[in-house]
Amino acid sequence: MWTTVRQSARATAQLARTGALAFGTYLFVTVLLITAIATAAVAGAGMLPETTLLIRRIAGAKRRQVGAWTGRPVPEAYLTIEGTLKERLRTAVLGPGLLTDLRWMVAHYGYGAVLPLLALPLWPVGLVIDGVRVGLLRRKPVVLPLITSLADLDARWSTALLKPSPQAQLAARVEELTETRAGAVAAHGAELRRIERDLHDGTQARLVSLSMRIGLAKRAYDRDPEAARRMLKEAQELAEEALTDLRHVVRGIHPPILTDRGLVGAVRALAAGSGLETAVHADEILEHGSRAPAAVEAAAYFVVAEALTNAAKHSGAARAWVDLERTPRGLRVLIGDEGIGGAEEITLVTGLEVGGSGLLGMRRRVAALDGTLTVTSPVGGPTMVAADLPCVW
Questions:
Q1: Do the beta carbons of residue 241 and residue 206 sit within 8 Å?
Q2: Predicted TM-score of the model (pTM)
Q3: CB 8 within 8 A of CB 150
Q4: pLDDT in tens, 84-110
């Protein structure tokens, strides 16, 4: 009986929030819509995008409310409202998400107000009838569970109405892929510039010097063999330095250690050289040689390398940990430290990456593979970086 009462009280609170949202929607959004339409007729349509954004926030609040009640998130799919006024108006008014939200809003005016009112009289009736059924007849309660059923009904109707249409999901997915592609192109461009800079400043300079040493040695060979031998020795040293530079460039493209040891072994090597006491855990499948595609392994490797570098430089932590896990959809990488937290993303200023701690580069590298990167770093710590990289095993 008490379990039913507690569940009914929770359902009543849920219905009360539903009623409050319905009332607030009716009071504020209706007035705002009328104001926006009137303003559009007199002074232009500048308020319509802001009205659409407000409607999105209200629908988002209902999605979160239903998700908290059911334990299943309600998806959303919106296009970003940005650009010129004309572009913002087109997205705000013609975007597929607005029709879905307005349809829910109109329906919610009705059931959002009615369902809470139906729950109120069930309490006194339920306490009497269910008290007799449970206390005297030893039977299950029947009236109070109806309150929970009303909350479930509100959740089902709201989920059905707020679920984005296939067209909205497709449009949002296209926009997401467009942003991902732009980030991948930017990351690729930055990587090419880095490789070009390394080759120009390091390898190329050494090879030019090497060529000059060999030329001078050829000229001096007949008249001063000792000087020629000295120049050839210097040329050999320059050749070895150039090879070292080339290996460094190659490691930046695809670390050879991944080919030699696999992801688990490569990550353990990173952990050993990180300067932190780092524990590496990998599931049994990865431990025994299951390999992800090369691009996925490279992305995971660079995420771990960057995260451990950040932790060693900025976190003040003495210990860190890395988890590698094979999932049904791909590879999951978790990196954590016990530091001070407060990690911030790099900002882009005039095309240059300044400040921050390299998180933007990590995010772009993961997004290029259609993965996701989540960083949790409250001030005071701890910091955790989670990368989910989709792949077929």
A1: yes
A2: 0.53
A3: no
A4: 888 888 888 777 788 889 889 889 988
Residue type for 168, please? Answer: A
Q: How far apart are CA 213 and CA 67, in angstroms?
A: 71
Q: Report the sign of the C-alpha dihedral through residues 337, 339, 341, 347, in that order.
A: negative
Q: Which residues contact 299 (CB under 8 A, 6 or more apart)?
A: 365, 366, 368, 369, 371, 387, 389
Q: Are 92 and 49 in contact (CB under 8 A)?
A: yes
pLDDT tens column, 152-162: 999 999 999 99
- Whether 119 contacts 15, CB under 8 Å: yes
Q: Is 366 exposed, middle or buried (0-12, 13-18, 19+ CB in 10 A)?
A: buried
Residue holding tokens 């900002």? 347
